[in-house]
Structure prediction request, 325 residues.
Amino acid sequence: MYSAEQLKEIYLNYLERNPFTKAPTNLFEPVDYIMRLGGKRIRPILVLMAYNLFEKEVQQALPIANAIEIFHNFSLVHDDIMDEAPLRRGKPTVHHKYDTNTGILSGDVMLIYAYKNIAAIQDRTLVPDLIDIFNEVAEAVCVGQQYDMDFETSVAVTIPAYLKMIEDKTAQLLVGALKMGAVLAKTSAENVYNLGEFGRNIGIAFQLQDDFLDTFGDPVKFGKRVGGDIVQNKKTYLVLKTLEVANEQDQAELRRLMDSYPEDEAAKIERVKALFTQNRVPSMTEDLMKSFQAKAMSHLDNVTTQDVRKQALLDLASLLLARKT
Prediction:
């Protein structure tokens, strides 16, 4: 069995052997740039882990791992354009380093190459099933992104709608990675389902934790500015839950704060945090996160393979959800 670090190294070596260096340079250089920009490589690792649950070696799964990582980075290129983001992983975004038209077109070709990688597997009889999973995931990611954009101007976002949005935008790609790795390993439909549900629940738990740490995390450990979601008036779970459980006075104050852009951003952040805390929303958020984590572990328990083979997935899930304030 391979560890997450070993699988990451295997994938990075594969990426090194398969660069985007063909002509025209103006189309493919930006693709190579974003693909080499770093990141945790969680999604390709999950493909390889799912495959490794049932097969000893993982080389046959590398094209699928690459397809998932290409698609993930394609979505980042286009998201950064929509968000007008200047930086990605501490470096200039593709559209800032090159230009917006290049970002759009290079992103488009990345989507094509995701499909080409799926078609590159040895057992081509599996391609239709893999394409079906990939299409479902790709559509969900687009749906989640649209809902996220809609929520920016909507005044009536519900908690179920928010959870569905983060499921589509964040968790579905983890679902797809695990299911595609399992299908490639030719395991049972029940195992494919349970691995997908493991990914879905871990993904939702991860995003809830991200919401929590954005407000209550240590900026050094978290790696981001704390309070960024509050400054941007994002309707996170913490905001929505406070609006659900708080008294009318606190609700009115929170709505006013989350519709403002004051010069003193620090004061706004501290007051919103205080509203969260006095309504016990941080503990509610952690409880919900833990409930999704428990559901994930229950589905992993139902995967029929040796427990020792599941250890790498357990370790990775623990690492993802072990970030502290």
Summary: The longest strand covers residues 87-88.
